[in-house]
Amino acid sequence: MNVLVIHGPNLNMLGIREKSVYGEKSFEDINDLIIEEGNKLHINIEIYQSNIEGEIINKIHEAYGNKDAIVINPAAFTHYSYAIRDAIGSVNIPTIEVHLSNIHKREEFRTKSVTAPVCIGQISGFGYNSYLLALRSLKMTKNS
């Protein structure tokens, strides 16, 4: 199984920004944990991060025919990027949206996801474990 993990804007600043919201672990630490979980589950992981909407769209398009699934944390793009939503919908690859914080317990503008409706599921509020839970869910879905 080949999975693309996409981190959206500002996630490269994890461990530095708003630790009370996003946790103490650095971006590199979280990526290491994702790779480790992928190895345990026999999932090949490709990790990608961009602060630029178009680059994320291009990466989703590149996944077509090359990846079995996508795990994406669109970050702020979650709430307004119809372009990322359309990219996810266009490639027809099982995609799980993840968030470190519980977006439904935060500011009003963060409670709406325009990308979730084209995903097979959304996992939020479990810190870095949201990514690991997504990988486990994909593995279970693949095996069922």
UniProtKB/TrEMBL annotation:
GO terms for molecular function: 3-dehydroquinate dehydratase activity. It catalyses: 3-dehydroquinate = 3-dehydroshikimate + H2O. Its EC number is 4.2.1.10. Substrate binds at residues 73, 79, 86, 100-101, 110. The active site is at residues 22, 99. Belongs to the type-II 3-dehydroquinase family. Homododecamer. This is 3-dehydroquinate dehydratase. The lineage of its organism: Bacteria, Bacillati, Bacillota, Clostridia, Peptostreptococcales.
